[in-house]
């Protein structure tokens, strides 16, 4: 599970950070174009900024879950198996 979450949220190569980068670059470009003309910031440009913030928040949450999943896997791997009772047919 941790590996899958890493694919989504890894800081440099993860899907969400790369998507966020594209959205931020589009937002910056649109903002620059908007400043060249009269009027206020159009709704689509504001939504790009909101989308970039949402992606950042989602990435943070996914990284937290991934870290928790990795710790849980490490704990499970390092915990010795509990002793089991022999099957009823072997007991006397």
Helix content: over 70%
In oligomeric terms, what are we looking at?
single chain
Which structural class fits the helix and strand makeup? mainly alpha
The total count of helices amounts to: 3
N-to-C terminal Cα separation, in Å?
43 Å
Beta-strand segment tally: 0
Order of helices and strands: HHH
| Low-pLDDT residue spans | none
- What would the average pLDDT be, to the nearest integer? 78
The radius of gyration over CA amounts to 24 Å
Q: What would you call the shape?
A: rod-shaped
| Biggest β-sheet description | none
Beta-strand proportion: under 5%
Would you write up a description of this structure?
The chain is rod-shaped. It has three helices and no strands. Helix 1 packs antiparallel against helix 3 (43-78). The longest helix has 36 residues, at 43-78. The chain has 92 residues and is an all-alpha fold.
Please outline the helices and strands.
Elements: H1 2-9, H2 15-36, H3 43-78
Helix pairs in contact: 1-3, 2-3
